[in-house]
Amino acid sequence: MTNSTTSPQKTADTTETKIRTRPLAASVILIAGIVALAFSLAVSVSVGAADIKLATVWNAIFHFNPDLTPHQIIQELRLPRAIMGAMVGACFAISGALMQGMTRNPLADSGLLGLNAGAGFVLALCFAFFPGMSYMSLILYSFLGAGVGALLVFGVGSLAKNGLTPVRLALAGAAVSALLYALSEGIALYFRIGQDLAFWTAGGVAGVKWSQIKIMFPWIAAAMVGSMIISRSITLLSLGEDIATSLGQRTRLVKFAVMIIVLVLAGAAVSAVGAVSFVGLIIPHLTRYLVGVDYRWIIPCSAVLGSLLIVLADIAARMINPPYETPIGALIALIGVPFFLYLARKERREL
């Protein structure tokens, strides 16, 4: 008599063959990416209304002299701006990678799934009814708004008879985001807070202070550590919920933990720089193409590449039309919109 039941060991062996990974490529990306990011941060600090030499940047960081005006500009204005750009780039990229792995949806992104719009709607309410609210409170309410936006998108997308599909999720995200953005604009017009929301809606890291980084860094660091701890479970989920369950994964608990991590990362990033979409869509796809489908490599590589993208976009934002700044959200959208249309068309063909 033949035993047709698949053993856990056989399932595990089959799963390992499905997990394509390129550790050498991932190591090269991490090392080269970190070097490129460090150089980009230095360039970001040196570029601005007053150009500063890289040697001066080095001296201002390691030999700070408060009596020198360039050193004060670097320490108080440009360095926190560059560091915040790197932080939020990593946040958007990791949150997009986690959502794509958990939902097995190539179109998943914090901007396309309502997190940005939800956080913006709650921030509009805060600006209108609670002016002068502390930055810490704004971050907490951004988390709440991001969660509400995600729940609305998943709820609307699940109303169809055949359940939630990648295309339905994207359409629901577009509809809910449009509604929340319209409500935000209505609140801005009625309460005359349009100027407060204008730069946030466009997306940018100008005006960031060290106090904001000190508040955000522990949250972001904890969420990144959590994403690395849960990375193997995300890899198994990305191969299919049945496979993950057969290998002993508690899929509901894993999904709940992923949603908490995504809300922390996306909520913190959106509260700092505004509605910057497509970073979490582009970077994870590029990373998977380069390093394979093992999220133990995808997450750190996505963090480095996402940071690099935002820092470079911020540099370009200051160089396109000086002394004015182009919103970084608009620059990234020039790449993100065609990429999204390509993915949507590809997904439609596979249905």
Mean pLDDT level: 83
Instruction: Quote the beta fraction.
Output: under 5%
Fourth CATH level, the homologous superfamily: ABC transporter involved in vitamin B12 uptake, BtuC
Number of helices: 15
CATH class call: Mainly Alpha
CATH topology: ABC transporter involved in vitamin B12 uptake, BtuC
Query: How are helices and strands ordered from N to C?
Result: HHHHHHHHHHHHHHH
The CATH architecture is: Orthogonal Bundle
- Pairing-aware structural class of the strands and helices? mainly alpha
> What characterizes the major β-sheet?
none
The tally of beta strands, per DSSP, is 0
> How much helicity do the residues have?
over 70%
Shape verdict: globular
Radius of gyration: 21 Å
**Total tally of structural domains:** 1
Oligomer category? single chain
**Terminus-to-terminus distance:** 39 Å
Weakly predicted, low-confidence segments: 1-6, 10-14
Question: What does this protein look like?
Answer:
- This protein has 15 helices and no strands.
- The chain has helices at residues 8-18, 23-46, 54-62, 69-103, 115-129, 135-157, 166-191, 194-202, 210-229, 231-239, 241-246, 251-273, 279-291, 295-319, 328-350.
- The protein has one domain: ABC transporter involved in vitamin B12 uptake, BtuC (Orthogonal Bundle).
- The longest helix is centred in the N-terminal third of the chain and has 35 residues, at 69-103.
- It is globular and about 65 Å long.
- α2 (23-46) packs antiparallel against α4, α6 (135-157) packs across α7 (166-191) and α13 packs across α14.
- It is mainly α and 351 residues long.
